[in-house]
Amino acid sequence: MSSSPFQPLAAYADDAIVADGEAGPRTVGDLRRDVLAVAGRLPPAREGGEIVVVCGDRYHFAVGVLAAWEAGHGVALPPNTQPEVVRNLSRRSAVTLLLHDTDASEGADLRVWLADSAAQAQGVEDGRRLRPIAETRHIATVYTSGTTGDHQACAKSAGQLLGEARVLGQTFDVDGAQRVLATVPPHHIYGLLFGILMPLLAGASFIRDTPFHAETVAATARRGGATILVSVPVHLRSLTVLEEGSMPALRRVFSSGAPLPPATAAALIDKHGIRATEVFGSSETGGIAWRVSETCTEPWRPLPGIRVDVDVRGRLLLDSPFVPAAEARPYVGGDRIELVEGGFNLLGRSDGIIKIGSKRVSLAEVENRLLALPGVIDGAIAAVAVAGARGHELIAAVVVRPPTPRDEGRSASEWIAALRTGLREWFDPVVVPRRIKIVDRLPREANGKLRRQRLLESFDIKGASATPTRASEAATAPSPSPPRASPAQVLATYRLRRTYPAERSFLVRSHAVRRRGGREVHEISVQVPSEVDRGGAGPALARMLSQVICRVAGLGRPRRMRGAGLRQAVAPGETLLLHLEVERPEQRVHFALDRGGERCTDGVVDYTDLGGLREAQVG
Amino acid sequence: MSTPPSEADLERELKELIIESLMLQDMSPDDIDSEAPLLVDGLGLDSIDVLELAMAIHKRYGIKTKADDAQNREIFASVRNLAGYVAEHRGKSSASE
């Protein structure tokens, strides 16, 4: 790989059209002027500081990203643009600004800045160029769904992100005559790389709009003169209903995010003469390999500069310039593969991540968000394989609190509607469980482990195979082999208040249940948040304890707590061991909280057993 | 035109098509309110559902959606809107043939 810095927009003549669409064409000169104007209004850059860019218009997105880099910032890309996710990301300490073209109340509206830029420019060409970007500079953080349930941050240097965009342009012969149309949003790394950065580095142009329905995709491609389509299997499948001749001749059609179903590949060839180029990669690793898919059995060919191997457990081993330098070499991927003549075949994932449509979904993450919703006492998520481009759908079984005077008479369907609304704040609608059932209790064994088969049976799912999910199976029982991505496993995360950020969450790291002299004994390892309340750790610990009794031990709703005060100070980030001894007939729990063998506090909690209180209602 | 199915019949037919094409096994047409939003707050269809439903309507009625996604959002807003669009375009194609 070359060590020369990246020279943004160097590949173009000033009057070349770089972006076109409903909102009108823009030249490279316009783009440079807008980038410089926006960069001049950004807050001063600081080490590790980032700007969140959320724009529907791909030209706006390009301006935002290039301006952030010009002013010395990195950019943060959210996993989706659901309001809570963007808000949460924007409140991280590293984030200096939210730059958007939506009607969000927070952050800066890029459209207003661009209007000012256009008004001030009026024929003035100052001849300034954009600053080069050094290969080692950190320029982006991509947030994705991780196996442990929290959003995982993947840091990208210019060498990884722009280096990959350059290799893609070279590999797929993208030149100044090409125009890219993408049906995937620009904040997604695939959409950013293929829809914006690859054309920018190759001197090509892109279409500003992101069409959705098949007829709109075809019309936008025809009208905008697209020669390259960047899409996902779900969108490509819908193109197969269009009549022959309705799609313009395309030089290349990219498909990524999920495997292209063979039936879709065949129909694309049949109807439109399109042989899709599938690209395999991930947010963490960048692009890995590609193939032109006619039967979808063709081997995957590694991209230039990438070496692929397989370990004894069948996992993908990767040596790639697009993997962060800090990661070990070879990088161990989450996919199982086999090496074949000319490349490799993909055999499936080796962790708890599934794909719905082309959205990457961590069941643990959905489960954790579900458990954090108000009124939820216990809950479980399972994935069921379904036909068609969707691939999987999620189902959820939820135990809700017994009726309080406030929600007396709240029906199961009202609960379900409230849960859906709560989850939609965090997830793309595709990820929100298709079926939610309010149940009395989950089919857990004495050690708290979920009997997933019985969960599926309660949904009357026959013949469908549940995807075994390590993360989800481990919701209450430690897994013998923790996933690669996390040094220490997190079984559950508890925010004590809905508004608290992740730094203020308790992490449950292990949970074991034994019987001792007729008593049920739980041993739970809990990590104190890295930030605790101003009121000190005591009240926070008490609230954590009642949540753990409810949700981890699955006993019921705490009624009364009597305990000794804290005998030892508890420091942020420390791991504590919580012992619970349950007297079921008395509905009482004796608790003790230890730190490194020393007692911090102990006491008794009376709880209300919820079993049989509510007749299960099926929603 | 031969006697067109009534508005209510068409709405019921579309509800059956929604349940069948989106595999909503737990639902019956009576569970779907013709005026409730199909996406998000009402039936809770997501973007994959909408594309699947558009394909099903194309196959069943030979009707394409518009080449403008703002108009398509309007068409797919509720069963009532969808029925109006299908009725209008079915009428057009039979009249022109």
Q: Overall 3D geometry of chain B?
A: globular
Low-confidence stretches of chain B: none
- The CATH first-level class of chain B comes to Mainly Alpha
Output the CATH topology of the largest domain in chain A. Answer: Rossmann fold
Helix percentage of chain A? 10-25%
Structural domain tally of chain A? 4
Rg measurement of chain B, Å: 13 Å
Report on the structure:
The complex is a heterodimer of chains A (619) and B (97). Chain A is of the alpha/beta class. Chain A folds into four domains: 155 residues, Rossmann fold; 140 residues, ANL, N-terminal domain (Rossmann fold), CATH 3.40.50; 118 residues, ANL, C-terminal domain (GMP Synthetase, Chain A, domain 3, 2-Layer Sandwich); 118 residues, Roll (Thiol Ester Dehydrase, Chain A). In chain A, 25% of the residues lie in helices and 31% in strands. Chain A is built from 14 helices and 31 strands. In chain A, strands 2-1-10-9-11-12-13-14-15 form a nine-stranded mixed β-sheet, sandwiched between helices. The longest helix of chain A has 16 residues. The termini of chain A are far apart. The C terminus of chain A is likely disordered. With 97 residues, chain B is mainly alpha-helical. Chain B has one domain: Orthogonal Bundle (Non-ribosomal Peptide Synthetase Peptidyl Carrier Protein, Chain A), CATH 1.10.1200. Chain B contains four helices and no strands. In chain B, helix 1 packs across helix 4. Chain B is globular and about 35 Å long. The termini of chain B are close together.
